[in-house]
Design goal:
PRAI_dom; eight-stranded parallel β-barrel; aromatic amino acid biosynthesis; TIM Barrel; tryptophan biosynthesis; binds ligand LGQLAAA5; alpha/beta; N-(5'-phosphoribosyl)anthranilate isomerase; EC 5.3.1.24; 6 helices
Length: 208
Amino acid sequence: MKIKVCGLTKPDQIEQLIDLKTDFLGFIFYPKSSRYVLNHLNADQISVIPHSGKVGVFVNETLENIVKMAEECSLNYIQLHGDEDENYIDELRHSLNKETMIIKVFRIGQHSENLKSKIQNLKFNSDYLLFDTDSESFGGTGKTFDWQILNDLEIAKPYFLSGGISLENIDKLTTITHQPFALDINSKFETEAGIKDLEKIKNFYEKL
Ligand SMILES: O=C(O)c1ccccc1N[C@@H]1O[C@H](COP(=O)(O)O)[C@@H](O)[C@H]1O
């Protein structure tokens, strides 16, 4: 199973994660987040990171800004973490470089009764799905959702599992029938927002 480490802000930590063969490096491009990458790194610094799994996380951002950031930062994946609809994704697809993949997020909360029909009716114009816990801040809360909900869905795309994944709950992964393509870890592996605890991440790799 692949691993994405999200919310990166520090060049030395990015280097260490590359040495650990981390599959995806996640950068938050949501200005309201405490992990907003452009407060720490500029576009050139992100662009030269030697990795083919650079993911930019956006929340209800304009198409123009996403395309600009994708180009300037040489992003390989765009993670749409807001309320972007299928028309928006179609437009984005046509505006992005052909090699750039799109990950559409479904935030699962208390009002997710119609999630099943939403997923079943999708045109699936994204390349990947990502399931995270819903919250007012959109993500990065460290809270999990009930993973059993996934057992009730037909998931027609490879998906990232996210939302409060930690060393403590990773054992429960076996209760999910359709296994994730990748695990997305973030706030449970930090000493403070945007600063990763590399020892914890190494333990996580060993536990998998
Ligand atoms: O991390 C953030 O600050 C953030 C802000 C807004 C949208 C998404 C964000 N992060 C994403 O949230 C999930 C889960 O994180 P956590 O493990 O619950 O802390 C992850 O996909 C991040 O990409």
